[in-house]
Amino acid sequence: MKQSNNQTILVTGGAGYIGSLTVKQLCDDGYDVVVLDSLENGHREAVDPRAQLEIVDLADLDQTEKVFEKHKIEAVIDFAAYLAVGESMENPEKYIRNNVINFIKLLHCMKRYDVRNIIKSSTASTYGNPKKESDFPLIESYQENYQPSHSALLPGKWKDKELEGEEFFQEIITYYDFFYKSIPDFALSQADITKLRIPTSVYGLTKLLDEIILEKYNRILGINWVALRYFNVCGASLDGKMGEDKPKPTTLMTLAIWSLLDKIDKLQVFGNDYPTKDGTGIRDYVHPLDLATGHISALEYLLDGNKSAVFNLGNGTGYSVFEVIKAVEIASHKKVKYEIKSRRSGDPAISFCDPRKAKNILGWRAKYNLTDMAETAWKWHSKHPEGYNGG
């Protein structure tokens, strides 16, 4: 074990899937780590015993401030967010309150206690659903170059009303303005609003709004930040002791494994008639251990005094649905049963990123491939079919 370097890092959401693996890597690298997590979706068992766990909800500003008073924090890595795209469309207010308003409370604490560096867990959902083949691989400046006049939000609910597109979008902007329009520092410019029209989900919109808020905090208060946009996360720790434990996973690889463990019915494959090599959609996948090292590379980048930036974290290579299924079959020595369904509205044929900026500036690149993801995920789920509570 490395000696402490006396730098204390606060990891919000550090009892969750990616957060817990990042906490372990931080401890291995000699950092002192404080985990702030409400345990609403996180797991006490996932927190490395070398870290200090503070069971606090970011919605409670007084308790959050006490954490900052108690610990001399050098930087924050923020994983605290609701993540379910489908739920965000059914309960958008919940996602705005948690993913945006609570995030602003966290930044308030950073400002008050003079913590100047934050790594933000962001998402590929900020890119929405690019339609042109020339848009791929996705690069970090995409949102600056694409300026839509209407929102791409898919159908959802707002106060029991079925809405979509610009009408849905304006309700969300009005809700945000209710809290912050009177505070000039948080007012949204027309350029901000144009950019926020890109995501197709409320979840993606809240994450992009957080990036915009970070820009404002950096410009006005000098808080430095890195936002890491990553793609489909699959895999577990190499020893199979830490992994994904969600009641309703949505990732293809996890669902394929759950079908083998009889936790769900037959796997559904949405579309086999895409213009791809095997007819199924192609996506970028990344291992959570690669994300852990990516967050730490970004942390070191900021602690060295570098400027705020956005980076993609992905393999930069797309894998098809059938390739993911095949990887799970090889890892498990079992046959995945699936059924072909119609394409889902809005799903692109291909989506993957260009991770070269992270490689060139952070010195980061993905180490693990699809085989590694499937082998570690199978080891975790097969040994822990009920997650951490199942032993």
From TrEMBL:
Enzyme class: isomerase
Domain NAD-dependent epimerase/dehydratase: 9-137
Cofactor dependence: NAD(+)
Catalytic reaction(s) noted: UDP-alpha-D-glucose = UDP-alpha-D-galactose
Signal sequence range: none
GO biological process terms held by the UniProt record: galactose metabolic process
E.C. code: 5.1.3.2
Superkingdom as given in the UniProt entry: Bacteria
Pathway assigned to this chain's UniProt record: Carbohydrate metabolism; galactose metabolism
A GO MF term: UDP-glucose 4-epimerase activity
Regions that span the bilayer: none
Gene3D superfamilies: NAD(P)-binding Rossmann-like Domain, UDP-galactose 4-epimerase, domain 1
The NAD(P)-binding domain, residue ranges: 198-375
InterPro entries documented for this protein: Epimerase_deHydtase, NAD(P)-bd_dom, NAD(P)-bd_dom_sf, UDP_G4E
Protein family (similarity comment): Belongs to the NAD(P)-dependent epimerase/dehydratase family.
Subunit-level organization: Homodimer.
Official protein name in the record: UDP-glucose 4-epimerase
Provenance organism: Candidatus Berkelbacteria bacterium CG10_big_fil_rev_8_21_14_0_10_43_13
